[in-house]
Amino acid sequence: MIRRIEVTGAGSVRLAAWDYAADAKEDGPAGPGVLLLHGLMGRASHWAGTARRLAPRYRAIALDQRGHGRSDKPEGPYSREAYLADAEAAVEQLGLAPVTLVGHSMGGLTAWQLAARRPDLVRAVIVCDMRAAALGEASQHDWESWFESWPLPFASLADVRKWFGEDDPWVDPPRPARGDFYTEIMEERGDGWRPVFARRHMLRSRAPWILDAHWEELTQVRCPALVVRGLEGELGRAEAQEMVRVLPRGSYAEIPDAGHLLHWEQPAAWYETVERFLEESAIPRQRTGTT
After folding, report:
1. What is the pairing mode between strands 192-195 and 186-189?
2. Mean pLDDT over each residue of the chain, to the nearest integer
3. Domain layout of the chain by residue ranges
4. Are strands 250-255 and 225-230 parallel, antiparallel or unpaired?
């Protein structure tokens, strides 16, 4: 059973979360906590496969961050401080500490920033295809143009799947798995299918971090940290390896035949990478039987 729960984030923003280990352990604790943080435009359901895989041994919880999924969508703030405070609130209110944070893209940045700020709360970090280098102002302009190119509203989910997976002119070569990924962030309205988020909120969320580099915060992450990249993703190998070098207890993994959405495109390889890190480097497996 998957149980929906709520967290009160910064400024009393209501955040929706899903506990995938709600009944995994009927005779005791569900296991060490794992909080899954999606990337920009994502939602908790994007972690469903990962959470189900971890649930028998860990208390796996996926969070809809502010402005995303079924969480509140205020006009602001969408600052780094707000996202960090929300994640911190989730860890504390749900009793997950010391937690392993698993973050994709923007969620990865939140994960390592929280680990740097609150080492008492975080046991380990997994960063999935997130850059530490500044992206620059041109990146924001590109995103604005990309959003404007969306042929909204979509007539059907099949149209969503085809456009993002095959026809998106901003993606070359096409990546069919993107189509399924984007169907998860659409909802049906009176005139057709539109994103569950406001695109202006996504641009506001990017603005605080694309102009700044985040190397200094990596040096402050004292817990074990895994940097994972897809071979065809946005995080290049040289930058990823430099992130690992800067991290006091960093390690590295890459997944072939995968782009930015590597946990969606190559789930089996992703699960294996995550489980190996959890078991060997970060947190002990839940004990069973006698010792």
Report:
1. antiparallel
2. 93
3. 3-133+213-282, 137-200
4. parallel
